[in-house]
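Exam prep: given the inputs below (a chain plus nicotinamide-adenine-dinucleotide), describe the expected output before reading on.
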Amino acid sequence: MKAITVLGSTGSIGTQTLAIVEEFPERFRVVALTAGNNLDLLIEQIRRHRPEVVALADGERLEELRQRLEALEPSARPARQPELLAGSDGLCAAAAWPSADLVVTGIVGCAGLLPTLAAIGAGKDLALANKETLIAAGPVVLPALEASGSRLLPADSEHSAIFQCLQGTPWAESARLSTGVPTPGLRRLQLTASGGAFRDWAAADLHKATVADATSHPNWSMGRKITVDSATLMNKGLEVIEAHYLFGLDYDHIEIVIHPQSIIHSMVELDDSSVLAQLGWPDMKLPILYCLSWPERQATPWRRLDLTEVGQLTFRAPDRAKYPCMELAYAAGRAGGTMPAAMNAANEQAVALFLEERIHFLDIPRLIERVCDRHRVDLTTSPSLADVLAVDAWAREAVREAAATLSTSTPTPLLA
Ligand code: NAD
Ligand code: MG
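Solution:
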């Protein structure tokens, strides 16, 4: 029985993790939950999973949570109320909770950084969904993993595919899961991308993209931020940096290929030129389950892949002019140091402004580029945690300042 902590339990990753725990109660149990501010769902999760501890990011609502738990009908109330914590310290304490074996990081954005480091500091294995943490703070997270012996199991579907393909290679046998050290025998990674909401739009029409357009993903059902990141292809750019830190390859050997069906979740090319791929329906439950069950495979009754039903698998190179965020991510990854932190924070802030309808879709890459250009002179090559946090805060403010100077009229089309 594996004891699981779920950071961001009320989100897309969090709820899917809890659904897996409910489906395999003999294998997994929940010991700790953290959430932002969705009390209705959190209370339902506490009722069903009876965690030992719960941490709420929004400390102002802690008293409300306490009162609502105490007001539950006796039959609905957990026999023992969980310990209730709040704020950043509370999230970190829950992330480091002693009885947990594995921590699923389902918080969105760099807000997950301190809880992730707390889990690593406590020696917990991680199921990494919260990619922004590794991207912003790779130079801090990797040495922390090395020092604590925590293992980083990728929950992102592409990285899970690569991880699965590498089982059986000398790399996996040495159990070096996340060291930033090149994986022996691995020559190239190909990350597949659905192409996001605008894959069938002409680049010249993207200036008309609305929030409703950008938040409807053709293949995957996910949180709003990552859905917009998929529409800009920033998500794939972030995943390139994530793959660099997880598998140690340089950026010239990590490629993106558009695969509209989202059946092949990524591919690895080995030194002898053999290419291995992992296939499945586009459903995050499988990569999450693999993190939970690894190194074992848990038998499931889930819908089996039928390639005759899929019919065709197609592939094409991404259109670099249509997706400037992809190039910005490669450039930030290659620059290294604090540049990925600046880029990631600029993206988080720009996407938030877009979701509030305060900037246009095409302003997202323009703002990120401006902030990365400004950061170049201040780049720190071997940053500390304090450096990363300072750059993160600076980049958000820089985006807000730059956004205030933008014209509110529709921006010029990308290729005009
Ligand atoms: P989501 O928006 O659905 O959920 C985010 C969770 O984090 C919620 O529980 C929310 O309450 C919590 N949260 C938000 N802001 C917080 C803060 N400041 N402090 C503490 N908690 C906070 O997001 P999601 O789609 O589940 O994505 C979570 C992470 O997983 C992201 O990093 C995303 O890139 C990654 N990911 C998601 C998917 C997916 O299918 N959803 C796939 C691959 C990777
Ligand atoms: Mg992914």
